[in-house]
Amino acid sequence: MPHTEEPLTKKGQRTGVRAWALILILVGVVVGFCVDTVVPGPAHGSTSTTHAAPVVRVDGGAVRGTAHDGVEEFRGVPYAAPPLGALRWRAPRTVAPWHGVRDATTFPPVCPQAPPSPNGQSEDCLYVNVTAPTGSARPHGARPVLVWLHGGGYSSGEGADYDPTKLAAEGTVVVTINYRLGLLGFLAHPALAEHRGGASGNYGLMDQQAALRWVRHNIAQFGGDPRNVTIAGQSAGGLSVLNQLASPGARGLFQRAIVESGSFAPKQRTLKDGEAEGKVLAAAAGCPDQTASCLRALPLSALLAQGTGSFTPGIVDGKVIRESVGTAIASGRFNHVPILNGVNHEEERIFTNIGLNVANGATIALPGPITADTYQDVIATTLALTPNPSKKVVAEYPLGAYGSPALAFSALSSDANFSCPTLALDQAAARHVPTYGYEFNDDTAPERYVDDALGPPYVATHQTELQYLFGLPNAKPATLSADQEALSTTMRAAWAQFAATGSPSTRTTPWPRFDAHRQQMLSLVAPTPYVDRTFAARHHCGFWTSLD
């Protein structure tokens, strides 16, 4: 019997796809800006402290990595066969064996995207990078494993964007992965299903599961425990974690889950809608005959030319994804593992900042400049609201309470699209599994991606927390203060502790479980986090839940 949709919030059900489309377009803009403003720096392994190159045998053959800064690092290890030619838009296949020792000291090409990475791009992109503490016992390792799923709106990004050296030094084996993006990863089309009613549109999610199976088979060789795997991700990576929680194909492949800023799209698209869109895209790319053979023969440029606004956060295809993640979590039909779930203070500030070029009034994705006169119209358009509900939003977020109409819009759209869906996920998940919530609130943190042109008061926004967990070699350089370094140390220890035990509590930072009555979250502020119970009130979540 088909499941009834049980969205985490009424607001999430109504605007999940719309919010996704807006976020996705803007994420592509963020990534494009980052590539254009990268300041070259040393490679992850560039250091004066080096040791003998480690060699490990994995599925396919032996690989040689590097040792530095207390870790061993292996870059560009294949976890699946190259999805080329006849394997384009098919489930990932087994790696072919190789002879000799394969070099694993340089990052692989990224999965095709626009603009491309400095590492180059290729459809041959299904690789993992492994960073492990030096001296990890092999072949019977017992260290916790954290598999990181990168963000980028399912249209950009790569594992090499994140340097996990310091996180691995906490005693965790960290794996970053590449997975198929854009149309190559998420095109739903009836001609691509292996058989009638077969999986379609979730190839990137299939790649993630293939990487997790590779981890299960091989991670002990790096000192990791294949029975203690945490999947973690931010933005599209966080939503990927939710999709894997909901996917029957991921059952047993991980034992914990960390979701950073990933609760923005609790409802996924139907296969019918996805395939209808896929037919339009196929024709636009040069395949009016709508055949798989034509699609698989298309040049890469024709696919990349279709842009980033057409990709969706998973398709309910009945195979990889059987129901929306909001429905799955609320009903308890998901892979039951402890969950650490959080959000940043004002996630939409970065998107509002990009969407409105305040210098000249030009717009990207938003319907026009946000002024006192257009405030309600922008709300109605972007949140897909009729006049009466949009008037209620204006009353709930009066312009007089904010420094500008753009700042008011940033606050309300953050609450509607990120903060309150995050709270709803915590409330739903806590009924079934140990759940821990957080809000990253270091509003003085450096902005590594896009300068905030909206003016003070400044806030922690989308992606701000990443620099506290990882090195970010492909972002603008920045330096944390002593207090911020203390918070960074606390966060890495908590993430590592969660990966090890299923609880982020450490000796110095107790972290209470979330429950629907007390709604306790940890407010991540520098230098010392504290337990907060005001999240729902501060983000107007009662209002958004009740909005008709």
What descriptive keywords fit this protein?
alpha/beta, eleven-stranded mixed β-sheet, 548 residues, three-stranded mixed β-sheet, disordered N terminus
The largest sheet is: 11 strands, mixed
Query: How many separate helices?
Result: 16
Average pLDDT for all residues: 88
Strands ordered across the widest β-sheet: 3-4-6-8-7-9-10-13-16-17-18
Percent range of helical residues: 25-40%
Number of strands: 18
Oligomeric state of this protein: single chain
Q: From the alpha carbons, calculate the radius of gyration and give it in angstroms.
A: 22 Å
* CA distance, first residue to last residue: 29 Å
The fraction of residues in strands falls at: 15-25%
Annotate the secondary structure layout.
Layout: H1 10-36, E1 55-58, E2 61-64, E3 66-68, E4 71-78, E5 101-103, E6 127-133, E7 143-149, H2 165-168, E8 173-177, H3 182-186, H4 203-218, E9 224-234, H5 236-246, E10 256-260, E11 269-270, H6 271-285, H7 292-297, H8 300-304, E12 315-316, H9 325-331, E13 339-344, H10 349-355, E14 356-357, E15 362-363, H11 375-382, H12 387-396, H13 405-429, E16 435-440, H14 482-501, E17 521-524, E18 530-532, H15 535-538, H16 541-546
Parallel strand pairs: 2-5, 7-8, 7-9, 9-10, 10-13, 11-12, 13-16, 16-17
Antiparallel strand pairs: 1-2, 3-4, 4-6, 6-8, 14-15, 17-18
Helix pairs in contact: 1-10, 10-13, 11-12
